[in-house]
Every structure is written in C-alpha cells, then in structure tokens.
Amino acid sequence: MPATVDAAAETPLAKTRRARRIVRLLGDIHPDARIALHFDNALELLVATVLSA
C-alpha cells in the first residue's frame, strides 16, 4: 500500500478496509489503551474534549 492515498480515487469499500486495518494495527500496538476522559453522555464527552484541548 502506498504511503499516501488519493482519497478522491479511493472507493468507499477501500476506505472501510483501510480504516479497519489501521484500527487493527493500532490495537495490536497499543492493546491497553484507554480513554482518559470521564463522561456519562455525549454532551459531557463534548465538553471534556473541548476542555482537554
């Protein structure tokens, strides 16, 4: 796979496959990764994300 991908030329199926591969590789590299933000709903996640930036 090339280092850069022309997103305009990539099919939706190819994007999905590439995204799944990336997620799988990141899971292999960082198996114990956890989110550091604490939230109970979508609004709290949004606020926590903005405040952490």
UniProtKB/TrEMBL annotation:
It comes from the Bacteria. This is Endonuclease III. It comes from Frankia casuarinae (strain DSM 45818 / CECT 9043 / HFP020203 / CcI3). The lineage of its organism: Bacteria, Bacillati, Actinomycetota, Actinomycetes, Frankiales.
